[in-house]
Amino acid sequence: MPERPSRRKFLAALAAGSAITVSGCASVVESVNGSGGETPTESGEVPVSNASQSTPEPTQTANGTSAAEETETEEQWSIDEVTISEPSVSLSSVTLPEDDVAYPTMGDADETLTVYGSWKCPYTREFVLTQFPSLVDEFVRSGDVSVQFRSVAYRGGEPFLGVDAPRSTRAGLAVWETDPESFWEYFTYVFANQPQERYRWGKPALLTRFAGAADVSDPSEIRQAASDESAYESRIEQTLTDADENDIWTVPRVVYDGEVTAPTLDAESTREQFEAAADE
């Protein structure tokens, strides 16, 4: 496991934008240690349409904090600016497991592929809105495979892609726990309307709005879970353990039978994983 970076290095990596790589959203720990993969390029950026789109990249300030931390105020940007529109894709009619499952899962087949992602990652968003629906249509709705989503809240002892990432993870787990029939609708609503990851948009108020838009039965429970740092702690920790075992420091990643693929970098390899699982 890579050594945890100093807070100054951690913030410097954020300021340089190195938490975003061509192949996905990388742990800042991995970026600081120089093994995070490719450096960002203009062609590697994923368009994210929302109120925060045109804001410049954060820069490092003299006191060691990022400019985004110092300047992100309600006057300049607020979650109230986030508009919530109906997603262009739908996953709401997928079959759910018959048995209770700790993590969001679609399908009730024996073979399960696991998608590691982040609610705040634009590359996870790209995968969810472009490749994922067709894979679901072909392999999950047919009953051949199941898919589980694991949101990565921390890596290397730090929140993954912002201090609000754990709140977003807890909110998602709360939707699954309290109203699993609405989870995949919530899932698409969040990713379709995802603000840029540099903003701390994963706040209880906005997460509750997403839950309301997706017709989650009791959005107040989602707000409560997002605000409670102890909520779903064991599930979050287990995801980190499993991510370690699969050496996952960048998302999205798909895992099946010990093999890890990067769907936004090599879509064909991910498709082959689904085909292999369906053939079992």
In the CATH scheme, what's the topology name?
A: Glutaredoxin
Low-pLDDT segments: 1-20, 31-75
Helicity, in percent? 25-40%
**Structural class per helix/strand content?**
alpha+beta
Query: Major sheet: order of its strands?
Result: 3-5-4-9-10
Strand proportion: 5-15%
SSE string: HEEHHEEHEEEHHHHHEEEH
- According to DSSP, the number of beta strands is 10
Overall shape:
globular
| Name given to the CATH architecture | 3-Layer(aba) Sandwich
Mean pLDDT metric: 82
* CATH homologous superfamily grouping: Glutaredoxin
Total count of domains: 1
Q: For the CA atoms, what is the radius of gyration?
A: 18 Å
Specify the number of helices.
10
Which CATH first-tier class would you pick? Alpha Beta
Q: What report would you give on this structure?
A:
It contains ten helices and ten strands. The chain is of the alpha+beta class. It has one domain: Glutaredoxin (3-Layer(aba) Sandwich). Strands 3-5-4-9-10 form a five-stranded mixed sheet, with helices on both faces. It has a three-stranded antiparallel sheet with strand order 1-2-8. Helix 5 packs antiparallel against helix 8 and helix 7 runs antiparallel to helix 8. The N terminus is likely disordered.
